[in-house]
Amino acid sequence: MTTDKEFRPGSNGHSISFQVQPESTVQAADKFCDKVKKYGHSVCSVETLKNRLPILKWLPKYSLTDVQSDVIAGLTVGLTVIPQGLAYAKVAGLPPQYGLYSAFMGCFVYCFLGTSKDITLGPTAIMSLMTGTFAVSPVEGDATYAIILTLMSGCVQLLMGMLNLGIIVNFISYPVINAFTSAAAITIAFSQLKHIFGLKNISREFLHMVYDIFAHIGETRIWDMTLGLTCLFLLFFFKKLRTLQWKDENPDDVKLYKRIARKFLWLFGTGANAVIVISAAGVAAGLIGLNIKDKLSITGELKAGLPPFRVPDFTLQNGNITQSAGDIFTKIGAGLGIVPLLGLIETIAIAKVFARQNNYRINPTQELIAIGAANIISCFCSSYPITGSFSRTAVNSQSGVRTPLSGVVTGGLVLLALYVLTPLFYYIPNAALAAVIISAVLQMIDYKIILILWKANKLDLGLLLITFISSLVIGIEYGILVGVGLSILMVLYPLARPRIKYTTTQEDILVVQPDQGMRFPSAEYISETIIERATTGKNNKSVIFDFQHISTIDYSAVMSIKKLMADLHRFQLQVVLTNVNSTISVDLEKADIPGLMTFSNIDKASHQLNYTEPTDIAVIHL
Amino acid sequence: MTTDKEFRPGSNGHSISFQVQPESTVQAADKFCDKVKKYGHSVCSVETLKNRLPILKWLPKYSLTDVQSDVIAGLTVGLTVIPQGLAYAKVAGLPPQYGLYSAFMGCFVYCFLGTSKDITLGPTAIMSLMTGTFAVSPVEGDATYAIILTLMSGCVQLLMGMLNLGIIVNFISYPVINAFTSAAAITIAFSQLKHIFGLKNISREFLHMVYDIFAHIGETRIWDMTLGLTCLFLLFFFKKLRTLQWKDENPDDVKLYKRIARKFLWLFGTGANAVIVISAAGVAAGLIGLNIKDKLSITGELKAGLPPFRVPDFTLQNGNITQSAGDIFTKIGAGLGIVPLLGLIETIAIAKVFARQNNYRINPTQELIAIGAANIISCFCSSYPITGSFSRTAVNSQSGVRTPLSGVVTGGLVLLALYVLTPLFYYIPNAALAAVIISAVLQMIDYKIILILWKANKLDLGLLLITFISSLVIGIEYGILVGVGLSILMVLYPLARPRIKYTTTQEDILVVQPDQGMRFPSAEYISETIIERATTGKNNKSVIFDFQHISTIDYSAVMSIKKLMADLHRFQLQVVLTNVNSTISVDLEKADIPGLMTFSNIDKASHQLNYTEPTDIAVIHL
């Protein structure tokens, strides 16, 4: 091939000369060795150790004022996570204590590995729903499936972190996540309505569940409903206290007693869950003391004490049910991919929000490693999959947390509760826990986005609605797959059918400019469309193929260019390329296409095509 | 937002004015109705009918000379497909007659629906291997699975044709198809070696198969091997006859007897399979006549006559085995997607090659409909999945075929063979059929591509080798998935991590130019990288974000631009956009980002940023 700089009219176009010389094999090998050395060096450095164990960065600077803040924040988060954990475990289809089993080890591990001071790991609404969807054990109340899912999610996340595959998350678009979250919140809220109304035998599948609730509404237990609705109302009221804005001209003028009162209201709002659950348990205990039994559905007996620290079971044996690890893996199926990805998305999204709010930087890869390690180690304590919790991270941040050490305080409080309080959990009414969940998940529903997208981007709105509806109709686990699949198709389509701009010069030459890369999905399409354009219409036209917007090519593109040249040559037409960048030039040169010519711009190409007969320039042998 | 044309220095940047007005809802509805009308009109036109039933185009012009050519071509292809069908059925794990059951109906259907005169549908090596891989019935010699796979493949292909989804094929790159084809050929060739050597109890899985063949080589049956190797040698020799090139100065000078002799040699080469199989059957029959039995493995008894025309069974019942349609679907699994796609790729690829060679045009969508319908109707005659055969299409083309009517002749000959010849098939030696298969598939292996890709594109070479090796090691059905997955990742990666060009102007303003679109996979990455660049280094810099190479945006991109502006505003820095095209302008205007400014080029933007203090221009409320 020839570039225009060396082009001599009348030559046969075969002289090869090029600015960018491909590097020799020896040079390439040297470069590779250098890279390996550098990589080896960087892996062993102190900086890398600090990046992998962020605690080494902040612990040496730790001070006494930090302790005070971290302890207060840790205790506040602990008071939130205990009632939430007991409640979420029900969404996961497990006995309440598993919510607490999942609430401490993640905090401990994150303290060593996390890069955000605010994040607090533990059970969340979405992860609980996913566990209840993918890890359903055939034995009532058995957690074997959930624990295996925790281990596998951790391994997948850790692997993704080490291989730097966090990039996958970028392919799940915002409307999809938004629709999925709203659908999950609605599914969870409906699943808790049965506890509020005290209904039995309600299906787990969303549409059936809604039908069952309406069909059985006559069987509502009046005591459960009264308590449930009261709790719900009080929770909404108390939570408002936390977000109250006081109108003061000058913050310094506010009197001390006022400030104490406000701080108290805030604490009350933040600890609302705990207050409600304790009060409801008190009511239930009182009723039992008055011998009014069986009116309220209560938690009942649960296994007391700390969970055993042991290697999880990989097989399930119970009565006449025996399932191997393979059986369990097959049943969890797509959950082994979806659950770790969702965990990852939740943590990274939350970490980014608070990092921006509090002006520090997180390291997404390290976050991935931290959450992976947290899941792996947590599964030894019978935990179900955990991730970052938005509501508790907000509480942590507002409580003035300074370092991830607050997580140790939170985890310690949870352990204490497990050790001391389990006998008292007996009295907690199911309706109170349901109220805790409903008030938490309703905040996750974002209906404003519909109006925003209606104005801004209808395609994204369509994606959102399809994801949302399919999540509710065919199931939350398939809905997200539908959404991700569709959004990937939406980015793939233009790769296969790029927009191509055609212009005809005064000299009746066709100038073709595709708007993006020429790789295998589009290569054949581009060349075939060009052939069609060039050979239909009044006159056949020679072609200037402009590479301005094409930054890389692959072998399919090279083949297509060859084919394009051969096909047009049969019509006595020519093709020349313009604006070819240096990378592509090297690739084309290697492919050794006879008779191929490139020019630096369209004018030069056009001039060349005008004053040379096709047969003068090159004989194309393909 | 403001464009630079309306920009008045000192204004607050909020005045909205725009060239491209978004269309009103009424206008949009009118447009939609027009489209629907046009579509309705086009669906009912004669042109559409002719496009859907291409026989209506060529049959009215059919002449007597066409008949002669089509009959000769049809008979030649028939002579090829009968031995190939008997042989391929073994690769599919079915009794030999199923190869013939699959060889006629496709030709009949294609005659009505096909757009290529050369293509001939029927059993092929790849489809047979896929049937033998995905549709393995638990009952020896039972075809229920294969027939269901045919029906489902047909439905998937027809649906893809009607929904215009043939575009999916573009995402399977050439190196992947090439590696898959070579690996399939090697797998098939090895699977036939056992028949050449007369070995028993050889595993179906490639690595085990190779091991077993070497381990059992001592049990070779000498008569089978002698016959098999002889057939193989003769086949290679005869097939060379077909491709002989005669060196003559002037074709018109060649004497008649020479021309007849040459035509005879060509015919002999083309009919080599039939000649070899008939001769080998003669030898086997002679040996049995001489009472030399059990020396040669022969085909033995097979069901005589035509297959019944009936609705296929959806359940399998045999002895104590009962399987429902659901069981069978689950077992076929990914085959329900892979088999129709491969069938489609094979047919379209072949059709394109011959359309180019013989200078006509095919309609890919109609080809998809034709092959889908052929599979659906074929399954009523107990066919396994069929597609276009490269070798027989070549024979058809070289025999001078004029229209798809030749397929009717081919199909007729196959029916005749089934009706009359089945008793004679008894004597066909297995080794002879194995030789037919091996000589056919070895042509599919393309080793030259390795050297070409080594020179042209190492990334594609890596993809080819990984696909090839994984096809052989973990199985042909997973190998192609690995290849397709990797090649899609290769096109997706640049979407998430576009290359970004940074330049700093003399006035210390950062100019940022991403090399491709800003959509959800890359939006956040781009805005975060810009923030990092703008706020690190000696001085913080304001940013000119150049949209030259960005042709569309989505909601994620809008959000990222908002975030970028808010984050840089905290550092007292500004962001302005340049070279924004009209589509994006409309999207940005709808999103209503306060304080956003666009300029037609970098110079104007740079001038503006230089002479205005940040706070003068816009207060950003996000």
Description:
Two copies of one chain form a homodimer. Chain A is mainly alpha-helical and about 625 residues long. Chain A folds into two domains: about 1-25 and about 495-615, 2-Layer Sandwich (Transcription Regulator spoIIAA); about 65-465, no CATH class. Chain A is built from 28 helices and ten strands. A six-stranded mixed β-sheet of chain A has the order 1-10-9-8-7-6, sandwiched between helices. Chain A has a two-stranded antiparallel sheet with strand order 2-5. In chain A, helix 15 packs across helix 16 (about 365-380). The longest helix of chain A is centred in the first third of the chain and has 28 residues, at about 65-90. The first copy, chain A, is elongated, with a radius of gyration of 32 Å. The interface of A and B includes residues 170, 495, 517 and 556 of A. Chains A, B: This is STAS domain-containing protein.
Write the layout of secondary structure elements.
2 copies of one chain form a homodimer.
Chain A: E1 2-3, H1 25-44, H2 46-52, H3 55-58, H4 64-91, H5 97-101, H6 105-113, E2 121-122, H7 125-134, H8 144-162, H9 174-197, H10 206-215, H11 222-242, H12 256-270, H13 272-289, E3 316-318, E4 321-323, H14 325-332, H15 335-357, H16 364-378, E5 387-388, H17 390-398, H18 406-420, H19 422-425, H20 430-441, H21 448-456, H22 458-473, H23 476-496, E6 500-504, E7 510-514, H24 520-535, E8 543-546, H25 555-570, E9 575-578, H26 582-591, E10 597-599, H27 602-610, H28 614-617
Helix pairs in contact in A: 4-7, 4-13, 4-17, 4-18, 4-20, 6-16, 6-18, 7-15, 8-15, 8-16, 9-10, 9-20, 9-22, 9-23, 11-12, 11-13, 11-20, 15-16, 15-17, 21-22, 22-23, 24-25
Keywords (chains A, B): Membrane, Transmembrane, Transmembrane helix
Membrane topology (chains A, B): Multi-pass membrane protein
Domain STAS (chains A, B): 499-593
